[in-house]
Fold this protein.
Amino acid sequence: MPVLIDGHNLIGQIPTIDIAAPDDEAQLVLLLRRYAARRRERKVVVVFDGGVYGHPGNLNGYGVETYFARSPADADAELIRRIRAVKRRGEWLVVSSDRAVVGEAQARGIAVISSQEFARRLAALDQPRASAREKIGERPLSAAEVEEWMRFFGIDEE
């Protein structure tokens, strides 16, 4: 599912990224690249407001496309313009907590997730994955169960 992200809105929800840092956008893009790789997302578009206009395109790649607006107002307008241009509405996900952006996406039938919730998903990238045994609730066999299986298969303990 392609994802359209309100960049600085999301950065404000990620405790490991300081929005005042000069490389806050790059830090987010690195997280989004990991997300795209793990989720096998082919397209993640992130729009930044108040960033460096005309920022070098070296942040693009690995499934992530970045766009830098001139001002916060331009970023919202760019997000809304992109939402209006979406052809396959059921395939996209918009990440924002901005009322105007969320309202436009919802009015067009595009799925929306808050920046807070998406930040939790990104944080989960660093959580250890449960093993197959943990997922199905399997427990180790007891000594009695091992003995029973050995008898069943005709295996001598010695």
About this structure: The chain has a mean pLDDT of 85. The longest strand covers residues 44-48. Residues 24-39 form the longest helix (16 residues).
